[in-house]
Amino acid sequence: MQLSGSISGTAYKMQAEPNILPRKIIIAIDGFSSCGKSTLAKALARKLGYNYIDSGAMYRAVTLFIQQNGITLEELSGMSEEQLEKMLDHIQITFRLNSDSGFSEIYLNDINVEEKIRDLKVSDWVSPVSAIPAIRKRMVRKQQIYGKNKGIVMDGRDIGTKVFPNAELKIFMTASKNVRAKRRFDELTEKGFMVTMDEVSKNIEDRDSKDTTRKESPLRQAEDAVLLDNSNLNQEEQLQFAMDLVSTLKTA
Questions:
Q1: Which residue in 16, 30, 131, 139 is deepest, having the highest Cβ count within 10 Å?
Q2: Type and span of the H or E element at 25
Q3: pLDDT for 110 beyond 90
Q4: Contact, 44 vs 50, CB < 8 A?
Q5: What's the average model confidence in pLDDT over 189-207?
Q6: Percent of the chain at pLDDT above 70?
């Protein structure tokens, strides 16, 4: 099997704002972990009637597959490119609409793993897994296919720098480490995961280090990206900030 290049059911139920933009664009949202990238990207996509793709979920799904098949990080790093490609050929990733929530969810080999990929064990591994060039190249190719017809909001670590360097709008999100740790802790405990604040804080610190120092597509703010520090902003204020940026493109 090969990774699926199709996405179905990623449109949202909410009616799009009329005549916001005369043409479809690509919106790239990058930033550190637990900054609320997905929350903003989903809201923005829903407001515009665009498709939303969580690129990080794709790397998490690959990570989950690796863990489920008993492959260690040491074994993974020792694989040749040919071995990695063969492994990736057995991973099928698709996004499907949950008709009840109105949001798209990720499937790994036809199994819904939307909740499983949020586990802290996956979070601990996803940075080194996503730093492997063969894995990153395969995911980037699929992400670029998703944006072929534009009208898309995608969030991740390298969307504005690597996946869509020519995106019409780029936003780089950040927040204080304490705020990010609290958000992540609340998210995990709400979903029933048994974690401590120290574990969450360490995970965020480790991911920041790995994401910003990796050789393959490190996390960095694109030169033409607008910085959004949402440490003291609620979700409505963040969405308004993004919509104001979209509105400026009318006359650009």
A1: 30
A2: none
A3: yes
A4: yes
A5: 91
A6: 91
User: Can you read off the two tokens belonging to residue 194?
Assistant: 């048994």
Is the CB of residue 155 less than 8 Å from the CB of residue 54?
yes
Q: What is the mean pLDDT of the chain?
A: 89
Question: How far is Cα 93 from Cα 102, in angstroms, rounded to an integer?
Answer: 19
- What pTM, to 2 d.p., does this model score? 0.84
Quick one: 19 exposed, middle or buried, by C-beta within 10 A (0-12, 13-18, 19+)?
A: exposed
Q: How far apart, in whole angstroms, are the C-alpha atoms of residue 215 and residue 247?
A: 36
pLDDT the model gives residue 193:
86
Q: Name the pairing type of β-strands 169-174 and 26-31.
A: parallel
DSSP string, 80-118: -HHHHHHHHTT--EEEEEETTTTEEEEEETTEE-TTGGG
**Domains of the chain, start order:** 26-247 (3.40.50.300)
Q: In whole angstroms, how large is the CA radius of gyration of the chain?
A: 17
Instruction: Give the C-alpha separation, 13 to 15, whole Å.
Output: 6
DSSP assignments along 189-235, one per residue: HHTT----HHHHHHHHHHHHHHHHH-SSS-----TTPEEEE-TT--H
Report whether 26 contacts 154 (CB < 8 A).
yes
Those residues whose C-beta lies under 8 Å from the C-beta of residue 112, and which sit 6 or more positions away, are: 96, 105, 106
Is 101 in contact with 46 (CB distance < 8 Å)? no
Residue 199, amino acid? E
In contact, 11 and 209? CB cutoff 8 Å: no
Least confident piece of the model among 21-30, 65-74, 81-90, 228-237: 21-30
Mean of the pLDDT values across residues 41-57? 92
